[in-house]
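WARN  no MSA supplied for this record, continuing single-sequence
INFO  ligand: NAP
INFO  echoing inputs
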Amino acid sequence: MITSKTSFIALIGNPVSHSLSPIMQNAALRYLGLDLIYIAIPCEDKDLESVLNSLKKINCKGLNITIPYKEKVFELCSEISPIANKLKAINTLKLNSKKQWSGTNTDVEGFIYPLKSLNLTNKQSIVLGSGGAARSVIQGLINLNFSTISVISRNKSSLDELIKNFGRQIEIQGLLNDDNRAQNLMEEADLIVNTTPVGMKTTRHEEHILPFGENFWRSLNSKSIIYDLIYNPTPTSLLQLGTKKGCMTIDGLQMLVAQGIKSLSFWTDGLEVPFHVMNDALKKYL
Ligand code: NAP
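INFO  complex generated
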């Protein structure tokens, strides 16, 4: 029951109306029996600083940050975790003992969650796309001890930037999507991760499109695990193709839930909620 003592956690971004976080986080807060609710707050760029400063002064216990503010909130935090600093992105904030925002990033742990039980040491991976999510994915692949990462993207400048950032930690190469070498890599890959938004449900009904077009996938074979970060629709057209080819497939819902569990643990100083609590709430809603 919401009472005059109830506190809240909020998602800040623009837009936020598509977010599934309120569904799964409220299910988890109810499960834990906490007097807390989770709401989504759309925020204009010009208001971000004043909104974050105001939230410090009322009964707000923590925040999730989404597009387009994951980088911009750096200047509004007085403490930043090493992983958020490394990824140059913050997705979770809480107030520290001095009532200042402390920021971290839970996407790497979220990405790793469905891969943890597989033995992927010294395996070869491909990452499609070179945006914000690709950074968390690459860090996750490094943590899982993959031997090589090939990033394939249409954007040369962000591709070059990624290779520069991670080149000292792992054998990593960047390719443009029309590079002929991509097909050989596709034949050999143990894991292919889609971090582009291609295949996502949009108002333009483009969910049947595959990242980089159908021809790009001609060398796909059952050896590869296909991991699509997109969680709506599930399965995406890419995961349907993977299943048809005999590949193991992983959708973006598991990452969404796992990063949400880690955020909740950050806000509550270590409380854990079972995976199925958030997952079931989402499955019921979708
Ligand atoms: P982002 O920073 O905008 O990066 C998107 C990347 O995809 C960029 O490299 C972009 O290239 C590329 N791209 C966009 N449209 C493309 C197209 N039509 N063809 C080929 N490449 C294209 O976005 P993000 O934050 O990384 O998020 C990417 C996706 O991951 C979204 O669908 C998001 O919902 C999903 N995601 C899921 C989770 C989860 O928990 N499951 C977590 C984070 C993100 P350009 O730079 O050239 O545009």
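The chain is about 35% helix and 20% strand.
INFO  checksum written, moving to next record
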